[in-house]
Amino acid sequence: MSAARAERVRWADTAKGLCILLVVLWHVVAKQYLRLEWPEGLRIPGVWGTLCELLLPLRMPLFFTISGMFALGAVHRPWRISARSRVAKFLYLYVVWLLIHTALLSLAPDFPTDRATSPLGLLEQLTITPSNLWYLYALALYFVIAKVTWRLPRFVVLGAAFALSVAAASELVPVPGNRAGLLQNLVFFLLGLYFRQYVERLAEGVNWPRFALATGVYGGLLVVMVVTGTQDVPGVWPVVCVAAAAFGVTGSAMLARWDRIATPLIGIGRRTLPIYVIHMPLLALLDLALARPLSALAATPFGLPLALLEPILMTALIAWICLTLHRGLEATRLSRFLLDLPGGAKPAQARPAATPVAATPEPAATPAGVGAHHAAPHPAAYANTARPAGGVPTAQAATWPTVTEQAAASLPVTQWPTRNGATWNPDPAATHHYHPQCHRQDAHTGHPPQVPPTQPGHPASSPSSGYQNPDAQATLPYEAYLSALPPSGPRPGAPTAQPYPAQHGPSTPAAPHHGPDATGHRVWPSSPGGHESTSQPSSGPWFDPPRAAQGTSWAPGTADGHAADTAALGHRDPSEAEWPWARDPDRTWPMRPSRRPNDPRS
Q1: Alpha carbons 221 and 228: distance in angstroms, whole number
Q2: Backbone φ and ψ of 418, nearest 5°
Q3: Do residues 357 and 405 touch, judged by C-beta distance below 8 A?
Q4: How far apart are CA 423 and CA 432, in angstroms?
Q5: Count of alpha carbons within 13 Å of 243, Cβ hemisphere only?
Q6: What single DSSP character describes residue 367?
Q7: Among candidates 601, 568, 564, 570, which has minimal Cα distance to 586?
């Protein structure tokens, strides 16, 4: 998450924590604090009541503005994905906690809150007149409206929502119970959804002058509304609520910069759901238990500090109990059913860490067979070459099990006696496994690859390199080519051995020079062994496949592989009639493509 994104989430969580505490404070003051028997002439309870009424334009409009901002991504998702998290979840929680509230609130019949006392009243709360849990009901309903009307002109949808808010605030339509809040706050959800970038810019660019401006506008409109008594005039209340939401955004962004204040608010803001659904029945039970003791204490000299601090202390106590119960629900895993929609996807398990690869592989062992004529290339010579897994990889592209450099270093290496200063392997097949389509770019590991199963007649890619040529043609096993060759015997001009791959890497003084000898014949090494022979006719199969030497890295069809032009090497190519297959330059070896080493197609 970027720093800017983290800062946006930080101020939003601060605002949510502040809003949920204001909601609890409003319910404490209106439903418990003002119902205590305070001494006559004490004006502090009236001050608390007025203060909470002045904050009415701030709490829920700011809450729904932030909810609309975070619903923007879900609106663009398909219904089958977003309907579960944004509609079914909130409706499920609303039904479950409505039943819990109905059962618990029946224990405190004198507590002033909406509750169903009959099956018809319960049905009404489930449909048209929600209970004090109406915020959950509104989130599901608002999201459906926003997604259905997403392709419509925004100002048309906002105009309709604003007209609905004006009608509900002015009581131009019947608004029993909490239906007024349900109808008034749709416009703020849509404002946060449509103008999210502008709200974020307002929070990011806040400073003291802008915060003072937002405070002055909200305070001025609020004072004018209260003094003139125009809160019931159509259009006044929604305008004051918009100014209050702007004040809440700037104020939350300022509070988010002070860690001592923002840290607890952020923690509460990320757990608003358990506080919202638990605090009302908890407040009813606390009022049932503490109403008489607190009323008696109010008549004592402790009545004044009690009147000043009781709403704050009760709000803090309720929030702490709700968060404690939330931790208990999570510990017993009941939160899966009481705070979330059951049947969700299981959390993805962490993938095991990849096997580390040595940054600088060890030098390869002394090459054997054909590789005795070449010096092993230094690993850093091709460090910048993009290669599949094995050797010095730049990206992990292997899909089959591979042998890493670190693992290959621990494998036993067969040591053979030396001849003429080079290691001689009497049986190269015992150390190296060869396959026509295997691009042995990590052949120096000396470990035979595990060839994955393939379809009959199709080439198998080398699992040691993880590379699979998509253009490779269907080939037959190597023995099938031998059976299709002409009868063995001397042929004029036939070479004694197949030219081996060119040296991969910089040449060294120890590398022998393969050129014309004293008689003028081209000298080529034969396999196996370290001796050399001239281009003279010989008996036996004319096709002697090369073997990738340990410590070299070459691939068929590349500049240092078998695709070197035979004419440039001085080796006369047999006629077209002598080939058991058709010459096709687009096929890989053993089709013998006639491409030069610097051909870009290689």
Answers
A1: 11
A2: -95, 150
A3: yes
A4: 15
A5: 20
A6: P
A7: 601
